[in-house]
Amino acid sequence: MNTTPVDQWDTKDVEKWLIANYFDPHVSQICDVNGCDGPSLLMLTEADFHLYNLGLPIGDAKRLIIALRKLQLSSVDSMKRLGLPLHVGENSLSGQGCQRSHRYASISESDVGDSLTSSVELIAETTKRFPPEIWKTVISAVYMNTVLLVTSCVMVIVHDRVPDVEKYPPLPDIFLDNFPTIPWAFTLCELIAVGLMLILIAILFIHKHRFIVMRRLFSIGGTVFLLRCISMLITSLSVPGVHLQCAPKTHANLAAEIKEAVQIYLGMGMAIQGVRCCGDYMFSGHTCVLTLLNFFITEYSPRHLYFLHTTTWVLNLFGIFFILAAHEHYSIDVFIGFYISSRLFLYYHTLANNNALTQKDGSRMRIWYPMFYFFESSVRYTVPNEYEWPFPWPLFLKKCLAGGNRKKRF
Questions:
Q1: Which is nearest to 337 in space by CA: 224, 248, 249, 201?
Q2: Residues with active-site annotation
C-alpha cells in the first residue's frame, strides 16, 4: 500500500492507484497522455472527462468518480495542503467545483468513516460485477460435450431405424421439389461453419469476459442439441433425397455401435470429417450451429464492425441455403432449427440482461430455469464488449486493445 501523501504522488503513483482500483484500461490516457499526478488527480472532476476528452465510457466514468470520492475522503491533509475544499457533495464531483468558495467544510471523523465505508463497498460491488467463475465454465463445457456424445449415440440409433426409401419415398417439400440437387453444396456449408467458428474463437481469445461468453455458448448449444436428440428419436422421417445412401447398418454388437458413436463425436458430425448418417432430420444440427455462431459473433464483437456482422448474417443464410441445395434436410428441418436456436439465444440473453427479472422472484427462477440461474447468478449486469490481450507480450497488442476500449463504446 502506498503511504506517500496523495499531494506528493507522481504519475507512476497515480498509475498504481488506477490499476489497484481496476481502471488499468485507462492508465495510458490519464497518466501517459494527460500527465495526471497526485494533485491533479484530487482536483479531477467529471467535467474534465469531457473537457480533456479522456474517452471513458459512462460506467467507468461514474466508478472513477466514486473512487475519487473515496480518495478525497481519505486524504484530508493533502486536500488542505493544496487549498482544496473538503466538501464532497454532488457539486464537487459533477463539474461545478469552479463555483464553490474556497473554504473548509467541517467533516466529522464518523462522517468520513461512514462515507469511506460505503464508497469502498460500492467500488467492490461495481468492480467485481463480472466474475469469470472458470469452474462454472468447465461444468458448462462438460454439459455440452455430454449432450454431443448422447447425440452421437442417438444418431447411430436413428440411422438403423431410417425408413426404406422404396417403401417410404421423400415427403413433398416446396423447395426440394423445385430445386435441383447440388452435390458440393453441403461441403461448402460445413466450410462456412468452420470459418464462423474460427472468427468466434478469435473473439473469445481477446474478449475480457471470455469465460462468461463461453459458458453461455456451451449451455445454449448443449440445450439446443439435447432438444434435437429428443425430436429425432421420437419420430423418424423418410430420406429427403433418393441420391442419399441410407441403408440401415448392421452392427455386430454394442461395442461396434459405441465405436461408431465415438467416431461421429470426434468427427463433430461433419461430412468433411467422413461422418455420414441418415435419419437425424428433425431438426437440422448444421443450421443450429451456423445460427448460434452467427448470433454469438454479432453479440460479442464490437458494435461498429458492421461489415463483420453483415458478413456473418450472409454466411448464415447462405449456409442454410446450401443445406437445402444439397437436399440433406427438409425445409421444415432447417426452419425449426433456425427458430429454436435463435429463440433460445434471444430468450437466454433477454433474461441475462434484465437484472430485474432475475431478482424479482428468485425462487421461481430457480424452479423454471435452474441451469440459467446457476450459470448467471453472479452476472448482475449486461456483459460489456471489452477486449484485452491475455498475455503480457507483445506490449503493442495489449495497448492497442486497451486503447480500443477507451475510444469505442462496444
A1: 224
A2: 286, 329, 333
